[in-house]
């Protein structure tokens, strides 16, 4: 297991409020990591920094074997470098079909001229079928994404994340609004992905985190409070104090 | 009839009764020039009249100038006369006795315009010391208009007796001007010039530049004149000047060469060359030189001739005034004046910019509220400004007193556009929240309709919105810095609105609720605030302010159905440049755009279109570097 | 290969086939009824109006791609249209004046020099603004080829630079609209100046006289331009249908709906927007270059911001996000506008008030625009869709 992403000494503040405070974080490839923390702990901002949406005031974010810094890169460059993100609120393209949504996410050259001259390939179609199968949307491919149920949109979003074939998957609350069976399936998909790639899951649901059976990082007030197995962190008095005890 | 005859007899005897201090003898000495005066020869006569020191002289000059002097045919005596019943009523110049006489016996003296002007100048000297203040003021004004060295003495003499302090100061000022330009000795002139240093009045600047008038002088030797400097002109211009002044041969234009060639075509050939081949300048020159060599045309001035002429002749700029000491003093004074003028101009420019800033602020602040609070672009904002202005116009139709009508128009304009804004919000905008581009288009539809409606009602020509008398005129600091009262009023209005809006948004319940709705509508709703009501009121407020801005703008610009579209783009720029959702941002945006526009206009005063073009280009570039405006909200609150 | 591709493309996109077929039929009918080639039932001036309408359709579909598909509400595309018109107008005016000047100077005993010719042309063209020299921007006006290149390059480069600046700094939504409007306004104000080098508010005129075809009647010329406009519209439609149909269409519609999300999928949104903005600008320039020789005159007022807003109105009324919607809107609104404002529409006498259409048409248009935005966001084209679905 080699280090894929390394954040060190990252701080960011909005109008004087320190959302992230001297945060350091590492994840290897392959690895599964869960991030928990109370509201306002900086989980979303943490993901925003990695994906390039928010620029930190100080600190370093290093990615990959060549140790490239993500800080000078745009969102799309970071995504092309191999960072995929699933948003908390499903954001699929509702005016397009499920198939088109998958096709958009599919790992292919992203420049306008490549896209303009892109021709559909049997391999691509097969990949879409396979992904749809995996997230249980095989029957829905020709439908408009906007017509899907909330849960189906969640699945589509997960499918699109997998379609990008990223090296680092950032998954924000994947289990929200899912049935127990669906949660199990989500767990399976994420665990499978973590066999090859790095997966970071932000989740409130402790049961879900427990099922992931991985190292847990607890964030509080923008920095790491504790790190280790779930049992280890849940026994940490600080964690109990700020998060579980209340 | 008998009585008339008697009077005539009496009048006939008048010459006998001439006294030592009578004017008539003096007039008779100059009889020919007084009866038939000419501009060239009347000078000595006027001098004699003024020099006589006789009190009647002034009245005579006035009557002479007013064509009220008549000459009796039989003996050549002069009388004042006016037409009356049964003939002319004569008045004796010295005694003031009157008589009526048949008009045929008299000849009216009609001096021509030039002579009347000369008489007027002579009169000035009487008028300067006249007991009547108005007369004295008129005389001083006339003198100031045309500074004449001959009047320096009279002016100086009148100062000691001057009772009016302001007029006395003015007279002293004019004496300084006259001394500076025409003083007897260089010392007195330099002293007068030195007192003018740093005085930025237009008159003073004119006096100094008149002292410093230059002419060009081309010479091959050291110039015998008060040299201001050598003049370096472009080659062609320099040579043209030498052609003009030194009788050097003029270079031939291509046109002249062509005509000469055309005149010498013989059998399709000029000087042995085929005419058809002469389609380049070089070919024509060669042919012409051949023509000149055969003596059929004057030779061309070659480039080397020109070079040589320019090498031997030097072109100087020399002062008309021969005294270097005087011109040096004047130059120093002028430099001091120019420095001060530049400072004043900057101050004046700043005032202009401030007034434009307040206009943009007024026009944009309503938009800033609706855009900032609700994220709604109201393309009809300009038409609300127009509605406000037309409201002011209609009120003036009913209330003729401009002050009262203005007092009525301001709240009424607010009410009208407030209602229009609320109606538009209810009918159109609230269905389109979260679809800002469509709001833009729908409000644009409203804008087209309102504009055409106004055209249908009020016609296409501009309607006046007259400001009350106390807003006429300008506050004058000096000859450079001044600002009209209307602009001051608009500035005050803008300040009032700034204060009022800050108060509403920061200190009132409505402001609190508005901010709550802006920042988090759902949270606000859950706390019992009705977002619909808040949005409606905010939109009404923004539109109402547009109405008031319309009245203000209408006071100094024309009220037309298209006036809104003149302000809409600028208003958007103001809001965007300043930063959305912040009154201070709008103020900053208005200041920047106002100052910038004035600055660019100052750099390129002849072309306001270009100024606007450059300003828009600047704004486009500015937005590249600060996409969120000058006063930008940061972080999550910025909503991205 | 290409043929097979386009064949399958057309079969997969029947609406494109329908539009092209109707356009072909329409061209045929107009030709048959025109004065030049047929019965003369359609006057030459009406052929010109129809030809101009086709050009407006072309810019309308460009607008639809940039706004309806990519979500950039550009209020500046008429600027590119105008630039195209100016670019071709410069050659038309130069070449025609050159012919006239050559005619005048041929009477001279000595043949004119090159500079005499160019001075005479400049005096003819710029006399109205008190100038007699060619500004630098007329450097290529003698050459049709170069000037045609300008039709493509100037709008393209302007759009490229402006778009690069705007998209790079992530100016979006209404901000971008206002910025494009500012660009148009700046251009119009610049052109209004007498020393802009393009004859100030006189604009360029006499563009209907095509150099080299002095002997040809306007009836024939108008029909030729009508055909050219129809061909340009057909090609433009095909181009845009192809661009919007495939994966490119999918990406740009995704950008319209959620730009940030597309970025997180790894697409460089700015490049796509720039591509669409520039491509549509070039097509708008071509449309303008075909429009103004039919109009005969171009002046800066044509570029005023209001024109670009009307363009948005056409597309909105016709139906956004569907190419044929833009065509319907442009035809419907521009023909209705010229009918109502031309004075041929009958007044309505209400007894107490006479409604004159020349006065009230804009009020009606403005209000119906509000109504369409509120009630039929899909525009007229959505009615077609409903009909098609019922069948």
TrEMBL record, chain A:
Domain of life the protein comes from: Bacteria
EC numbers: 3.6.3.-
Bilayer-crossing regions: none
Top-level enzyme category: hydrolase
Keyword flag Ion transport: no
UniProt GO molecular function: ATP binding; ATP hydrolysis activity
GO cellular component, one term: plasma membrane
Pfam families: ABC_tran, BCA_ABC_TP_C
Alphabetical list of InterPro entries matching this protein: AAA+_ATPase, ABC_AA/LPS_Transport, ABC_transporter-like_ATP-bd, ABC_transptr_urea_ATP-bd_UrtD, BCA_ABC_TP_C, P-loop_NTPase
Boundaries of every ABC transporter domain copy: 5-246
PROSITE patterns named among the record's database cross-references: ABC_TRANSPORTER_2
Keywords: ATP-binding, Hydrolase, Nucleotide-binding, Transport
UniProt keyword annotation of Nucleotide-binding present: yes
Protein name listed in UniProt: Methionine import ATP-binding protein MetN
Native organism: Pelagimonas phthalicica
Automatic annotation (TrEMBL), chain B:
Cell membrane found in the keyword field: yes
Top-rank taxon, per record: Bacteria
A single GO cellular-component term on record: plasma membrane
InterPro entries linked to this entry: ABC_transp_permease, ABC_UrtB_bac, BCAA_transport_permease
Membrane is among the record's keywords: yes
Keywords for the protein's UniProt record, in alphabetical order: Amino-acid transport, Cell membrane, Membrane, Signal, Transmembrane, Transmembrane helix, Transport
Pfam families the UniProt entry points to: BPD_transp_2 (PF02653)
Residues in the signal sequence: 1-20
Membrane-spanning ranges: 359-377, 406-424, 485-505, 536-556, 568-596, 608-625
Record-level Gene Ontology MF annotations: transmembrane transporter activity
Compartments where found: Cell membrane
GO biological processes: amino acid transport
Membrane topology, as annotated: Multi-pass membrane protein
Similarity comment: Belongs to the binding-protein-dependent transport system permease family. LivHM subfamily.
This protein's name: High-affinity branched-chain amino acid transport system permease protein LivH
Automatic annotation (TrEMBL), chain C:
Pfam families to which the protein is assigned, alphabetical: BPD_transp_2 (PF02653)
InterPro entries: ABC_transp_permease, ABC_transptr_urea_perm_UrtC, LivM-like
GO cellular component: plasma membrane
Swiss-Prot/TrEMBL keywords: Cell membrane, Membrane, Transmembrane, Transmembrane helix
GO molecular function: branched-chain amino acid transmembrane transporter activity
Membrane topology: Multi-pass membrane protein
Keyword Transmembrane helix annotated: yes
CDD domains cross-referenced by the UniProt entry: TM_PBP1_LivM_like
Transmembrane segments: 46-67, 74-94, 144-167, 174-192, 219-243, 271-291, 297-316, 323-340, 360-384
Species this chain originates from: Pelagimonas phthalicica
Compartments where found: Cell membrane
Name assigned to this protein: Leucine/isoleucine/valine transporter permease subunit
